[in-house]
Amino acid sequence: MRRHLPFRVAAAAAGALVISTALVSTGMASAAPGSASPRPAVVEPADAGGPAARAAKLVSEMSTAQQASSVVMGHIPSADPAALSAYMETGGLGGFILMGANVPTSEAELRTVTAALTVDPALPPLIAIDQEGGYVSRLPWDQFPASQVLKDRPAAETGAAFAARASLVARGGANVNFGVVADTTSDSSSFIYGRSLGADPVAAAERVAAAVTAEEPFVASTLKHFPGHGAAPGDSHALIPRTDETLDEWRQSDALPFVAGIDAGASVLMFGHLDYTAVDEAPASLSARWHEIARDELGFDGVMITDDLGMLQSTGIAEYSDPVANAVAAIAAGNDVVLMIAHSTPETASQLASGIAAAVDAGTLPAERLQDAAERTMTLRLERAASGAVWAVCADCAPAT
Fold first, then answer.
1. Of the given ranges (230-234, 248-252, 297-301, 345-349), which has the lowest mean pLDDT?
2. Spatial CA neighbour of 268 closest among 59, 128, 74
3. In terms of pLDDT, which residue wins out, 89 or 39?
4. Any residues with CB less than 8 A from the CB of 44 and at least 6 apart, and which?
């Protein structure tokens, strides 16, 4: 069951949505500003029982190998439609992440890229992108305010900016945005400081809630990097940041933006490669305890995904040198999708899927855990496929100044 937001946070999120709808329109003469125009949608039989029921049925008909492929989000650094289509069709992958090498110079070209990633239009994969704006931006045409500006402005402005940003993501053909940084820190030397929506957890929570509320009508909004980099110094792209902050201390501080984002309806929660030693010696991305906290204490019922598993290899720690072992451990811990970019080749995603399936066959990964992960991932794919709204940034939206 969803937890309830404090009134102050809930009100800010609602206000952001009102402003965000004023910021967008379909760009079609027949549609009123801020409205949605229809597009071909997946039509479910009357007895389908909704996306979750359909997902359960589809997954039950899959082999173990197919289930394993469906929980892997892959990547190849190419914008060639033929290569991308072959990659997705051969691997049967459930997702793909767009990085800089996948993004051409125009939105129209990007739509060609994302169309090539969709083998079955009735069941599109999860096509994700890191579009935070500002420091982390894959779309050169996104000129809307980002964290550097928003972290000192009212939450409603965050909602407006993220509505416009998510609209660009959706127009480009992606359906998941890894865009809402819920980490918070007052340390200006931290690598996450410039990407955070606030130095104060309470104020950041209001902006995170506003961003999620504004994004969800367009794309699956993602909170990252759970449980929060703020307390753990160091950059997880090269090492595993550590903190001795206790769980109770976390609940009163770093947890607040994640709580607000979850209660605002975020579809995806990304787990960071960081270690709260007082809670679990394992990195959060591989920690069953942190996944339990997110599910049982925070009430998150969406899709859990790892941060780039290649980052674990980049640490040089021998324990994390095997990407297949990392992927199996991540699914076992509670992740529903494993993501790998760094150190990967065109064969890596299929290797991860094969390793996950082999672990189930060997009995070292419970079949029920893989099935649950596949069902959650499939449910989100069906929800995005069934979305009947197409949004576009309005012609006279003000860019960042």
1. 230-234
2. 128
3. 89
4. 50, 54, 386
